[in-house]
Amino acid sequence: MSKANSEVAQWRTKYETDAIQRTEELEEAKKKLAQRLQDAEETIEATNSKCASLEKTKQRLQGEVEDLMIDVERANALAANLDKKQRNFDKVLAEWKQKYEEGQAELEGAQKEARSMSTELFKMKNSYEEALDHLETLKRENKNLQQEISDLTEQIGETGKSIHELEKAKKTVETEKSEIQTALEEAEGTLEHEESKILRVQLELNQIKGEVDRKIAEKDEEMEQIKRNSQRVVDSMQSTLDSEVRSRNDALRVKKKMEGDLNEMEIQLSHSNRQAAEAQKQLRNVQGQLKDAQLHLDDAVRVAEDMKEQAAMVERRNGLMVAEIEELRVALEQTERGRKVAETELVDASERVGLLHSQNTSLLNTKKKLETDLVQVQGEVDDIVQEARNAEEKAKKAITDAAMMAEELKKEQDTSSHLERMKKNLEVTVKDLQHRLDEAENLAMKGGKKQLQKLESRVRELETEVEAEQRRGVDAVKGVRKYERRVKELTYQTEEDKKNVNRLQDLVDKLQMKVKAYKRHSEEAEEAANQHMSKFRKVQHELEEAEERADIAETQVNKLRAKTRDSGKGKEVAE
């Protein structure tokens, strides 16, 4: 019994000690569970706060995604504008190429015109030499006329001693002399006028030659300037086109990268949504099942590790966004360079505008000069037409003089025939006198010497009269031949005057054609000036559009910088 009591006491003490130890262990386990429960509640609160921050991050990322979509749309619009601008630059380049080809064609036309002007100058020189030759022939004819006038005066002096009919011929010859003298004076006046006109034509030829050379030099300089300007504009447009192509490629690359980032952000957003749902499920499981606290704690630890991974992903995304910001900064620098290029293009365009303005003023001055030349040429044409009319009147007068000379020739021929008849009559009288002389000799044989001497003296007188009549007949024949030669010369002179009139008419036609060509050139110059002004306005409008696009790009870059700063501040606040 005592043994049993002792065993009971031992078991009691053992049980008490074991129970106390057990209760202490249970208390410690209870405290541990309470601590773990408190830790789990803190973890739940942390996960709730993280879920709230993730929800805010989700909303912010959705806003950023929307902004990025807007930026993508703007980038697409900018790419479309760049495509449009590239097409416009292609059109402008094609227009400048066409303008260069037109300038080449104008240069060839100017060279052809210079060659034609040189040929016309050579022709005018030939005509001038022909006019000089004609002047020499007119001088020789003047000398011949003076010699003929002196011969005619001598003939008139010789025939003044003849009969009354030759007196009438003398009067007619004197009237012819006065008319020929007046004609000679008129011819001398026309010669002096022709000489002055030839000198004036020579001076005008020299002036025209100088003006043509100067115009050719100016055209060459203008074409060289246009070539240099067009080459500079083509180079600048080519560089601008290359920069636009590079910016377009950069924009497309940025667009593709933004699309990839957008897809990654959508994937991350879906992951974060799934993770938030899992965290909420885990929170409900932790609240409902305290027994599985350790398991949920392990899940919370795993969720924390996932959160760390997400934080690392967010940091990587932040790095990507920083890289995008760097790319946007590079794009901003490119747009800044594009703006500078546009400014240089604006300066070049302003220089080209000044050049076009100077070309326009030079073309207007050329137009005014051509108009003054046109007025002068029209005045010269009027003078030449008046001279042609005067020459035609002189030709008509020469024809009337030739008709009068022909009538006088007929009169001289009548007088010569009359003299021939008188000669025949005198020969008959001589024969009669010879017969009478024979009879007188017979009578002398029969009668006195005095009658013989009288008859001999009478015979000598008659012989002298016959010789004088023969000389007058020969002189009359010479005068008739001279008149015939004079008539031929006058007819030749009338033909030459007609040729001169025709040549002057051709010259008038050529001058009128030149006047028309000058008018056409002036109209073409006005059209070219108008085309240059329209092209200048077009280029100026394109430059204004480029400046507006550069300003828009700069504002977009500033907005992106502000967004990146806001996103950086939000991340700092979230951390």
UniProtKB/TrEMBL annotation:
The annotated regions of Basic and acidic residues compositional bias extend over 563-575
Where, per UniProt, does this protein localize?
A: Cytoplasm, Myofibril
- Polar residues bias (residue ranges): 231-242
Per the record, its GO cellular-component terms are: myofibril; myosin filament; myosin II complex
Q: Which Gene3D superfamilies match?
A: 1.20.5.340, 1.20.5.370, 6.10.250.2420
SUPFAM superfamilies reported in the protein's UniProt record: Myosin rod fragments, Tropomyosin
Q: Which domain of life is it from?
A: Eukaryota
Using the UniProt annotation, give all residue ranges assigned to the region (Disordered). 221-246, 541-575
* Listed name of the protein: Myosin tail domain-containing protein
Please provide the record's keywords in A-Z order.
Actin-binding, ATP-binding, Coiled coil, Cytoplasm, Motor protein, Muscle protein, Myosin, Nucleotide-binding, Thick filament
This protein's record includes keyword Lipoprotein: no
Primary residence: cytoplasm
Q: Where is the Myosin tail domain?
A: 2-563
Q: Name one GO molecular function term.
A: ATP binding
